Amino acid sequence: MRHRSLIIFTTAITAGALTLTACGSRNDKGDGEGGGKTTVVIGVDAPLTGSLSALGQGIKNSVDLAARTANKNNEVDGVTFKIKALDDQAIPASGQQNATTLVGDKDVLGAVGPLNSGVAQSIQGVFDKAGLALVSPANTNPALSQGDNWAKGDLSRPFKSYFRTATTDVIQGRFAAQHYYNDAKKKKVFVIDDKQTYGAGLAQIFAQEFKRLGGKVVGTDHLTVKETDFSSVADKVKNSGADSVYFGGQYPEGGLLSDQIKKAGAEVPLMGGDGIYDPEFIKASGEKNDGDLSTGVGYPVEDLDSAKAFIKDYEAAGYKDPYAAYGGYSYDAGWAIIQAVKSVVEANDGKLPSDARAKVTEALNKVSFEGVTGKVSFDKFGDTTNKQLTVYAVKNGAWEAVKSETFKD
Questions:
Q1: DSSP assignment of 77-116, as one string?
Q2: DSSP code of 47?
Q3: pLDDT value at position 108?
Q4: Are 384 and 166 in contact (CB under 8 A)?
Q5: Which residue of 63, 219, 255, 381 could cross-link 281, Cys pair, CB 3.0 to 4.6 Å?
Q6: HSE (CB half, 13 Å, CA atoms) of 50?
């Protein structure tokens, strides 16, 4: 029997493909027979180039580390893991093209990614039609797992093959509003978004909760991704009398927006979601932006005992780029797939069955382990059961954790 090469994709989307070998070798004796091993490739789909590559590279490297660790520990008897990373540049069309390519390859068993909720919208259906599991370490838009009518309380899982290790914006947006209103004592906020799936959805949830608490939204506006002149928006903020700004979007635009708001004379903090929590947000501002805030899903990895081995091993592996905001969640997403493969193999006399895709997807619903970021398991919607969040503030030119807690309604 010839060797079978089975790919688990970690969603990193774009034109070219980057294949990383994770401490294993291909053996054509196949399927664990005669000392041979089956090769399972974990795919990565993330923006590996472009303005969000700082996050994408961290995702890719962290999944690679999960594969390396599984091989070193012989986590799944008879299986060697590798990763194959594709670059989507945070563009939905590129993601869909990559997804089509992946599901067309019979050896692909699952995927990790993508970074962006907008990209996820374009590829969920492609993966689901093929019964191929997709685990995101970063998507936070509620509709991806709970359906388009989630805001009305009508929750329905649209794709059974979709999972995520990051919590949703229903929680993140409300958490941010509660901190701004209750802790930071902000009462008049100006809300801005980048018109993208993630940013617009997060800003909407934040605004609803802020008003429910008694705060006032004194103005709203939008900006366009990849533009750099936000002076007109900054002037509106200054003239609105706002004591704070909330931005739904990513760090390239967020950093410039903070800079230009302060240059306009509005000495108010800007707060955003996990999309701005990156050193590049601070670097993008020519003005001192101490006091700006961000929420992040989970607790700071550096503060978790469960992450010590991950941090040590990541540094030892010598990756060029840092693990960044989603490194821990990416490792856990990759490890969840590894554990699903392990369950499927053990249930089939040490071999992968002919319907491995369906079996891996099914097994993910039952996965449960202590991961880098804490307990990793999924609810009936495929959402993480981990609802820990953190507020970060810029202090002395660097992000610093202010508050970490488990969100409760």
A1: TTEEEEEEEEE-TT-HHHHHHHHHHHHTSTTEEEEE--S-
A2: -
A3: 81
A4: yes
A5: 255
A6: 20
pLDDT in the model for residue 362: 97
Grouping H, G, I as helix, E, B as strand and the rest as coil, residue 388 is strand
Return the structure tokens found at 361. Answer: 């997807």
Alpha carbons within 13 angstroms on the beta-carbon side of residue 352 total 30
Give pLDDT, residue 268. 98
DSSP 156-213: --S-TTEEESSPPHHHHHHHHHHIIIIIS---EEEEEE-SSHHHHHHHHHHHHHHHHH
How many residues in total does the chain contain? 409
Q: Specify which residues 401 forms β-bridges with.
A: 392
361: left (phi over 0), alpha (psi -120 to 50) or beta: alpha
If we measure between CA atoms, which residue out of 300, 242, 292 comes closest to residue 272? 292
pLDDT along the chain (409 residues), means of 10: 41 40 37 61 91 95 97 95 92 94 83 95 96 95 95 94 95 97 98 96 97 98 97 98 98 97 97 95 94 94 95 97 95 98 96 94 97 96 95 97 88
Three-class HEC string of 311-380 = HHHHHHHCCCCCCCCCHHHHHHHHHHHHHHHHHHHHCCCCCCCCCHHHHHHHHHCCCEEEECCEEEEECC
